[in-house]
Design a protein that fits this description.
This protein is mainly alpha-helical and 294 residues long. It contains 11 helices and 2 strands. A two-stranded antiparallel ribbon has the order 1-2. The relative contact order is 0.21.
Length: 294
C-alpha cells in the first residue's frame, strides 16, 4: 500500500528547502539579468551570511534569524562597493573577464573566512532545532518553516521593488536594453550597483536561513552553493526571477525525494542529474520561453 503520509511529508520538506535554494538562485539570476555577469563567488557570499550568523550568535547570543538585520544591509553595501570598485571597470569587457574577476573574489573571500574562522565546520544550535508543527499527519520542522517564511518575505519584497517602484522600473529597463535605458535618462551604472548589492543581500540572507540546518566551511561550502545556484537558475531559465524560484523548488523536491526513496548518500547528485537532463533536452531552461525576463 502506498504511503501517502510519507509522500506528503517529503513534498513539504522539499518545498521548504527548495524555497531557500530559490533565494540563492534569485540573487544570481538578478545579477545576470541586469549585468550579464555570472557571479562565480555567489556561493561564497552565502557562506559569508552563515558566518555572520555564527559570529553574532557567539558574540551577542543572537538567534540566527535576528542577525538578518545586520547581514542584509551589510551584503547590500558590500555588493555596491564591489561593483563600484571592481566590476564597473570590466562591465563592457568579454564575458570571461568578469568570470575571472568573480573567481578571484571567491578565492579572496574564502581564504579570508578561513583565516578569520579557521577550517573547522561551524553551525548555530537553536533551541527549536528539533521542534515541529503538525498539520494533520504531516510534521513541519520549525527551522524549515522559518527559513521558508524568510524566503517568502524577502522574495515578496523584491517583487514589490521590481514592479511597484521607480527603481524597479529602471532595473527592468536596464535588464531589457541598457543602451535604451540610458537614452531615456536611466543611470545604468548606479542601477548595476544597486542590483549587485541586492544580489549579495539575497545571498547573505540565504546563508543566515541555512545556518541552523547546515555546517559552514570556508573553502568547501561556497563552491557547493555556487553549483546549486547555477542548477537552480539553469533549471528555470537563466535571467528569469520567476523561473529561478521554480527551479529552486524543483531542486529541493528532487533532492528530498531522491534521498528518501533512493539513497541519502547521493542527495546532491539527483539534482545534478535533472540539471544535465534539462541542459540536454531544453538548454534554455524549463521556463525559458514562458517566464518574462526581469
Amino acid at each position: 500500500m502506498f504511503d501517502w503520509i510519507s509522500l506528503a511529508q517529503n513534498l513539504s520538506n522539499g518545498l521548504l528547502i527548495g524555497a531557500v535554494y530559490a533565494l540563492i538562485g534569485v540573487g544570481l539570476t538578478l545579477i545576470f539579468g541586469v549585468m550579464r555577469t555570472i557571479n562565480f563567488a555567489h556561493g561564497d557570499f552565502v557562506v559569508l551570511g552563515m558566518y555572520i550568523a555564527v559570529f553574532l550568535s557567539g558574540l551577542l547570543g543572537w538567534d540566527p534569524y535576528f542577525s538578518l538585520i545586520v547581514a542584509m544591509p551589510f551584503g547590500f553595501v558590500l555588493g555596491v562597493l564591489i561593483q563600484r570598485i571592481i566590476l564597473v571597470r570590466i562591465i563592457d569587457a568579454p564575458p570571461e573577464t568578469s568570470m575571472l574577476a568573480t573567481l578571484g573574489i571567491s578565492l579572496i573571500l574564502a581564504n579570508l573566512l578561513l583565516l578569520i574562522f579557521g577550517g573547522e565546520p561551524k553551525s548555530v544550535h537553536v533551541s527549536y532545532a528539533s521542534s515541529t508543527v503538525k498539520l494533520g499527519e504531516v510534521s513541519f520542522s520549525v527551522v524549515l518553516l522559518l527559513a521558508g517564511l524568510a524566503t517568502l518575505v524577502v522574495t515578496g519584497a523584491l517583487y514589490l521593488l521590481l514592479n511597484k517602484t521607480e527603481i524597479g522600473r529602471a532595473i527592468r529597463a536596464t535588464a531589457e536594453n541598457r543602451l535604451g535605458a540610458e537614452l531615456v535618462g536611466v543611470n545604468t551604472s548606479k542601477i548595476q550597483s544597486i542590483v549587485f548589492g541586492l544580489g549579495l543581500a539575497l545571498a547573505l540572507t540565504a546563508g543566515v536561513t541555512l545556518i541552523p540546518l547546515l555546517f559552514a566551511t570556508p573553502t568547501v561550502t561556497g563552491p557547493l552553493f555556487t553549483l546549486k545556484a547555477f542548477v537552480v537558475t539553469v533549471l528555470g531559465g537563466l535571467g528569469n526571477i520567476g523561473a529561478a524560484i521554480a527551479g529552486g523548488i524543483i531542486l529541493g523536491v528532487v533532492e528530498i525525494f531522491g534521498a528518501s526513496y533512493l539513497s541519502s548518500e547521493y542527495r546532491d547528485a539527483y539534482g545534478l542529474f535533472v540539471f544535465l537532463m534539462v541542459l540536454l533536452f531544453k538548454p534554455e531552461g524549463l521556463f525559458g520561453k514562458s517566464v518574462k525576463r526581469v
